[in-house]
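Support case: nicotinamide-adenine-dinucleotide complex. Customer-provided input:
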Amino acid sequence: MEHGLKGKTALITASSKGIGKAVAETFAAEGCKVAICSRTKDDLLSTVNEFKHKFGFEPLWCVCDLNKHSDIENTYNAVVKEYGSVDILVNNCGGPSPGYFFDIDEHDWNFAYEQVLMSVVRFSKLVLPGMIKKQWGRIINITSISVKQPVDNLMLSNSLRAGVTGFAKSLSNEVARHNITINNVAPGLTLTNRLYELAVIEAKEKGTSHEDILSQMAKRVPMNRLAGPEEIASVVLFLASKMAGYVTGTTIQVDGGYVKGLL
Ligand code: NAD
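Agent response - structure generated as follows:
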């Protein structure tokens, strides 16, 4: 199937591992010029090596801590210097710390606000003038099923992802006339480092093994299994494709049926 993305430039944030990496690989397989970034140089280099083996080329890579405004600007500038523009921006981030309300202090709130909401605001502000000039662009934010059904012990995610969703909907209306779409993909339980770490924490609390916790998680999903990161990436690809040109301001959950609500 022709997705109409060959030669487009795609910047995927927080992409040395997990869902972000799977998204970057999916765009590379489509013939996009891909840029990846995350905090740790060694992780990035090992992902770059994997790309070389799988696709025969190296993605552009930048060390970028999403909590640092200057890193975000440097990353955007590096991508524009190398590729000329950003056609597709995928805003992913590390998961905010777990915790209930009384576990979280002012510092945690501010950190998560910068990480989850402001990184999306800042990257969007940087890429949009170029997209408006080209009269084409895609912004896709990776959020969480917590926007449809808050998850126990994830107060920060439950609160700040809702902010990203409101931001994306408002902004999508402002830029739709420029042929720019803005959407969110809300993953359900997806087998990555993040889920593994959450399972380890829960296992300690409950005095059981993380394998047991992961298997219990899978049983809560109507499909009776966890998602693979590539299953989230394929929906991101659809939203970036020419087939989704009239889809904007939405959140699509990819959760094997986990969310029980209608919308
Ligand atoms: P992961 O931990 O496997 O990967 C996170 C990536 O983000 C890594 O590349 C890491 O280096 C990078 N990163 C972390 N903090 C960063 C920072 N400050 N600056 C730059 N890069 C940073 O996580 P994942 O499971 O792929 O999750 C990706 C996103 O999807 C997270 O926001 C997570 O909350 C959300 N999500 C995940 C699940 C799941 O089940 N895995 C479910 C719902 C939502």
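The chain is about 50% helix and 15% strand.

Case will auto-close in a few days if no follow-up is received.
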